[in-house]
Amino acid sequence: MQCPRGENPALGQKRASWELQQKGVMVSSSGVRSIWLRNDLETMKKRLKALEARAAQDGILLTEGQMAALEKAKQQKEAHGEIESHHPGYLGSQDTYYVGTMKGVGRIYQQTFVDTYARVAICKLYTEKTAITAADLLNDRVIPFFAEHGISLLRILTDRGTEYCGKVENHAYQLYLAVEDVDHSRTKANSPQTNGICERFHRTIKDEFYDIAFRKKLYRSVKELQTDLDVWLAKYNEQRPHSGRYCYGKTPMQTFRETLHIAADKTIRTSDQSDGQQPILSAVR
Description:
Elements: H1 2-7, H2 13-22, H3 29-38, H4 44-58, H5 64-80, E1 92-102, E2 106-115, E3 121-126, H6 131-148, E4 155-158, H7 172-180, E5 183-186, H8 196-216, H9 222-238, H10 252-258, H11 260-270
Parallel strand pairs: 1-4, 4-5
Antiparallel strand pairs: 1-2, 2-3
Helix pairs in contact: 2-3, 4-5, 6-7
């Protein structure tokens, strides 16, 4: 589907179908749209974003028309205050997911972290929802993960829950972010959908892991459930193709590894600059 996806993302489905037919690929306009929907490319904005990602990751040369379209899209996004993610580690999304109640244990909560660029997911289970557990996920799994790959987590996006927000001087999560020099962005008030990446991941993990796991096995401890969760996460990150705008069919870890050079290059270029402003958020996904 190279033509409507890469060569000219501004084409509509009818024009894209015609262009493909000229190349001997017989796909109807509705077929083009179905393919776009499956790959999260149904709007011109999403196709432009995929083109931008391919240009950065694969080093493809852009035509003047493509460059003009990308520049126009960039200006529109800035005008509407949309959030951007430019490379792995640029922005992480964190949220709390209520897993359920385990007999003999009580309530189980999942702290979720997703890199908004590569869509790599990191999760850990707890029996409470507090600032300490939110900070523990970062300290135990997230920060070490980025350090292992030679880059840093620059900023993180959360909702305004009490586990993430509070007075810096006596709030464990806020203190940890300050120590690690991670900028904190919050979703708009009454607009939790701005953390949509975590929300979509939670739907996926519910459908593909928890709903199946709880039908097949009776868990007696958080540790036992965490073990199976880690196995599923490894498959999700390493084997499951992702349709995210920067992945375009690659797995999260493949996208992460192949774009580490972007993070390293941009980190070097911005190291001498003063701290930039935190991204402005909108409900646009």
